[in-house]
Structure formats: C-alpha cells, structure tokens
Amino acid sequence: MSRVLYHPVPPQGNVKRFMRNWSTSLGLWGAGAGITALYLLSVTPLVKRELLVKVPVLGGYFEDKTPACDKPF
Fold it and tell me: How far is CA 1 from CA 4, 5, 31, in A?
C-alpha cells in the first residue's frame, strides 16, 4: 500500500514563485505602458511643463521657446 506524505507549504511560497516567474514580464509591460502614456500625453501643456521639462537630458527639447506675443492664450 502506498503512503501519503504531507509536505506543508508556507503561504509565502506561492507569492515568491509568482513574483519570480512574472516580475520581468510585468516590469517590461509596465515600462512600456509608462513610456506610451508619456508619449501620448507629451503634447499636453501640463505634462510638458511639470514633468518633461524637468528631465535632465531631454528637458531642453521640451522647453517652450515661443515668444509671448505668438501665444493665443
């Protein structure tokens, strides 16, 4: 007759295994979603002024160099 062996599994074991298997994929999808959101919202003045201008390397590209007399609002 066969024996049934009981091996207790701690509850955090499932979480560790899930994170080990999915962390790279979820990180890449999250980074892609964040970059896409910034790309789509880069034409919004609020995002451009409050976020993109403050990026150290790319900030000069997003600065508004339009003279005040040419701005309609």
Answer: 10, 13, 54
Residue pair 38/54 in contact (Cβ under 8 Å)? The answer is: no
- Each residue of 41-53: pLDDT tens digit? 989 989 998 999 9
Locus of tokens 């150290």: 56
Provide the residue count of the chain.
73
Closest to 63 measured CA to CA, from 42, 73, 48: 48
Q: What does each C-alpha distance from 45 to 27, 42, 50 come to in angstroms?
A: 28, 8, 8
Question: What single letter denotes the amino acid at residue 64?
Answer: D
Q: Is the pTM of this model over 0.85?
A: no
